[in-house]
Design brief:
three-stranded antiparallel beta sheet; globular; alpha+beta
Length: 99
């Protein structure tokens, strides 16, 4: 039941794909006030970089993740969860605790 409840907040496809793992990794990083290099976010998804990048693009387009240039090393791209993304993950985790 808890697994089905997640779809009230995100499309079903997010949970069988690396999107959920990427969101969780960024959620934890945000709690620690850390930003994550885009390559590390792909690793968190447990998929090849091309697949991870594709899912990061989906998350960016859905407003759940921001992608931005590292100010210390402009060759590097960082990602972080957005306020909307954090709210969605918070709600999903709260639903799990309530069930």
């Amino acid at each position: 039941k808890q697994r089905r409840e997640r779809t009230r907040h995100l499309p079903e496809g997010y949970f069988g794909e690396p999107a959920w793992d990427i969101l969780l990794d960024l959620f934890v990083a945000e709690a620690g006030a850390k930003t994550i290099p885009i390559g590390s976010a792909c690793v968190a998804g447990g998929v090849p970089p091309t697949t991870g990048l594709r899912w990061i693009n989906v998350l960016v387009n859905d407003g759940l993740v921001d992608r931005f240039e590292d100010q210390q090393d402009r060759r590097r791209i960082l990602v972080r969860i957005t306020g909307r993304g954090k709210t969605v993950v918070d709600r999903i985790l709260a639903d799990r605790g309530a069930g």
